[in-house]
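Support request, please re-run this one:
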Amino acid sequence: MIGMTVNDTTLGTTIANLGMTDTRFPKPVFHGDTIRARTTVKEVRESKSRPNAGIVTFHHQGFNQRGEEVCTTLRQALMLRKPQ
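Re-run finished. Output below.
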């Protein structure tokens, strides 16, 4: 689910993934399911130690073809302010 969103959200700007919390799998995924992902930026703050970076909290959600949420997680990442 997170890998599906990289090209649209963080390609070329991620310095480090800092961790994931609140990870849940509320419904099972079966062979043949079609999965789509949605990412929402929940919080952005400046890095105190790196002036060219900030810490972003993402809410990632995965849905099956019936629109049922099958996965959800909060992820914090250290991100460049501008792509290099």
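The longest strand covers residues 69-80. The helical segments are 2-9.
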